[in-house]
Design goal:
Protein name: Fuculose phosphate aldolase
Radius of gyration: 16 Å
Organism: Prauserella flavalba
Number of helices: 7
CATH topology: L-fuculose-1-phosphate Aldolase
Strand content: 15-25%
Pfam families: Aldolase_II
Keywords: Lyase, Metal-binding
Helix content: 25-40%
CATH architecture: 3-Layer(aba) Sandwich
Distance between the termini: 29 Å
CATH class: Alpha Beta
Order of helices and strands: HEEEEHEHHEHEEHH
InterPro entries: Aldolase_class_II_sugar_metab (IPR050197), Aldolase_II/adducin_N (IPR001303), Aldolase_II/adducin_N_sf (IPR036409)
Length: 211
């Protein structure tokens, strides 16, 4: 995806991501929500309440500020708007939050196993995975604990719920979401084979991230 410079371009990118997320089985119907920070402002657009991610239109987005006020667009933002708002408040470098419900990432986490990184793409794009316990949908507890994890991680699994993937733009956030689920699928397959330790080589990981 090209770097978006206008609100319209951001919305079109989020519409594309919503369609692709449903096509790839990363979310169903009106599950999940998407947002992007507006260039050069303290505002962000977020999908409206009840919208189906593969049927999004420009009118299906609310514009909010970082104080949690609706300042334009659809009057009823997603019930998960706090998740996006709190993340933007702690990460100045994040300009998009993709919140979806990838089945394998949620399942592996619910079974008590960490999602392991196996490939170069996993190591580069996911890098590390944070997690929270289960908290009610739209709650302050969910938004605040996910934001704390987002201080360190670009991918956060929310227990028995879904995940958030963060990026400097919409394309990077969605790339991370896809790689997280791919890593979770690989982890699930490894567990089915009885393997609990194989992962991307530690020395190579440290070299990639200059640890």
């Amino acid at each position: 995806m090209k770097k978006a410079t206008t609100v319209g371009e951001l919305v079109e990118q989020l519409i594309d991501v919503g369609r692709m997320a449903v096509e790839r089985g990363l979310v169903l119907a009106s599950g999940g929500n998407l947002s992007a920070r507006l260039p050069g402002t303290a505002e962000f657009v977020v999908t409206a309440s009840g919208t189906w991610l593969d049927r999004l239109e420009p009118a299906d987005f609310s514009t909010m500020n970082l104080d949690g006020e609706v300042v334009g667009g659809h009057p009823s933002p997603s019930s998960e708007w706090k998740l996006h708002q709190r993340t933007y408040r702690v990460r100045d470098d994040v300009n998009s939050v993709i919140h979806i419900h990838p089945q394998h990432a949620v399942l592996v986490d619910a079974l008590g196993h960490p999602v392991r990184l196996f490939t170069l793409d996993h190591a580069v794009y996911v890098k590390s995975v944070g997690r929270t316990d289960y908290y009610p949908n739209g709650s302050d507890e969910l938004a605040d604990t996910a934001a704390e994890e987002a201080r360190v991680h670009n991918c956060v699994i929310m227990g028995n719920h879904g995940c958030s993937a963060l990026g400097e733009d919409v394309g990077m956030a969605f790339r991370r979401a896809m790689n997280l689920e791919e890593a979770a699928i690989a982890t699930y397959r490894a567990l089915c084979l009885g393997d609990t330790t194989t992962a991307f080589p530690e020395a190579a990981y440290r070299s990639l991230h200059h640890a």
